Amino acid sequence: MKALAFDLGAGSGRAVLGWIEEGRIVIQEVHRFSNEPVQVGGRLHWDILRLYHEIKQGIRSAWRAADGQIGSIGIDSWAVDFGLIGRNGELLANPYHYRDSHTANAIEEVLAVVPETEVFARSGIQFLPFNTLYQLHALKRDHNPALEQAEHLLMIPDLLRYFLTGEMHSEFTNATTTQAFNPTTGKWDERLLSAVGVNSAIMLPPVQPGTEVGRLSEAVTRELGVAAIPLIAVGEHDTASAVAGVPALQPSFAYLSCGTWSLMGTEVKEPVLSEQAQALNFTNEGGVYGTYRLLKNIMGLWLQEESKRSWEKEAGTKLSYSDLLGRAEQAEPFRSLIDPDDLRFLNPSDMPAEIAAYCRETGQPVPASDGEIIRCILESLALKYRFVFEKTQALSGAVYEGLHMVGGGIQNEMLCRFTAGALGKPVWAGPAEGSVLGNLAVQFIASGEVADITEARKLIGESFDIKVYEPEASARWNEQYGLWKKIAGL
Ligand SMILES: C[C@H](O)[C@H](O)[C@@H](O)C(=O)CO
Question: Residue limits of the Carbohydrate kinase FGGY N-terminal domain (predicted)?
């Protein structure tokens, strides 16, 4: 039997069949689709019904490709966003996109009610303006009718699973990204939810990854002409699946999940709720099989994606990444650097102009050409990776021999090279399908084909190419690291 994984990212989604053949994992992409947010007036929304339609297309294609031999389905997606269900069981409104501006001042407004130390002690989660807790605060503040009528809150994968099965379940790894879940009690945190005026009854008690969470409903099986395939709650936060899919053989390892976002950290048995972790704004998101992901969000390749989008809009024509990276390769090294996590880069109207303004304001040469901007982004990301790598070691007390880099971002070889140079340590890049493979791994373990996550990670490492980048020009990177920390104020 084959397993079917859906991996929904901020820009695109894919449906991938996976199975084990002669001791190796084999994957086959059967459907790929774009994920285009929709601006309505001043609000930014996800087109959730379009995504659901694409998931059904994916099941149809997979059923044909697997000759009906599909044993289970798992869905993972980006975090924090959600849909609200009314008393008639229907979706009350299109989910907000986490880059929508309605949460702009929400952190300050909530911390005026519950002190920062208490929020961190209760949730263990980093302070980012789009966390679900602040989205709920903003909806309540703005008297949002959907929240007023809501009977249930479902995160994106929970919601899509509900559409497929008719059953409502909340999944643990994604629940922890809300900043309203308490890892110490293992329950939704009443104090935090009541502080934003939300009745905790709308939050369902989360199930652990690996749990069977319903089957395709009769209506769906009839519509698609398929069997009532069971759904497995995988690490439904895509980063949780990416970490599950890291081909690490050692128990203590450092990873970087690299896509629109860069998520860097390590895997721990207990959440790290120390003052230092809070001061460094690290997070403890739930992981698979009784683990936590001690990590930090880094703005990531969003900076590059948005710059390309601006230039394409200006030029009225498509640009290729290979041309852009080719020009970045020719650009002068370390000419100008930024802190990629300055919140001005969360959703500016013109990313290249925002980067230029940052450099101007910090007294640096202003990058003008697209090559200079891309080089500035990639060098700055690599330096930020070094900073977070060092802080991860400080918080976990471990010393890592190198860094596992997974996700679509590893196709950016320049970034992999710069990361090894900046860290002064080897980078083991691969697999690119990080989240998909972690999603499949949990399904293989649920079906008993694979014993546990250690075996799954070994199998992934043996089934997919891992490219090794050894550090180059470390002395130059060390020198620049000092300068960059001054610019970034770190
Ligand atoms: C908001 C982001 O989606 C989240 O922090 C990140 O972990 C993610 O899910 C990346 O896909």
Answer: 4-245
Q: How far is the CA of 225 from the centre of ligand 1 (A)?
A: 34
Question: Is the Cβ atom of 79 under 6 angstroms away from ligand 1?
Answer: yes
Percentage of the chain lying above the pLDDT 90 cut: 99
For residues 287 and 172, give the distance between their C-alpha atoms in angstroms, rounded to a whole number: 8
Length of the chain: 490
pLDDT of residue 334: 98
Q: What domains are there in the chain, each with its CATH number?
A: 2-236 (3.30.420.40), 237-430+466-490 (3.30.420.40)
- The DSSP result for 227-254, as a single string, is ---EEE----BHHHHHHHT----SSS-E
pLDDT digit string, tens, across residues 425-434:
999 999 999 9
Read off the amino acid at residue 83.
G
Contact predicate 425/402, CB 8 Å: yes
pTM above 0.80, yes or no: yes
Q: Which residue's CA lies nearest to atom 4 of ligand 1?
A: 79
Walk across the sheet containing 427-429 and list its strands: 283-286, 292-298, 262-268, 254-258, 403-406, 427-429, 467-469
Ligand 1 in contact with 358 (CB < 6 A)?
Answer: no
Place 8 in a pLDDT band, splitting at 50, 70 and 90: very high
Closest CA to 309 of 342, 344, 347: 347
Whether the ipTM is more than 0.90: the answer is yes
Is the distance from the beta carbon of residue 173 to the nearest atom of ligand 1 less than 6 Å? Answer: no
Closest CA to 347 of 260, 285, 258: 260
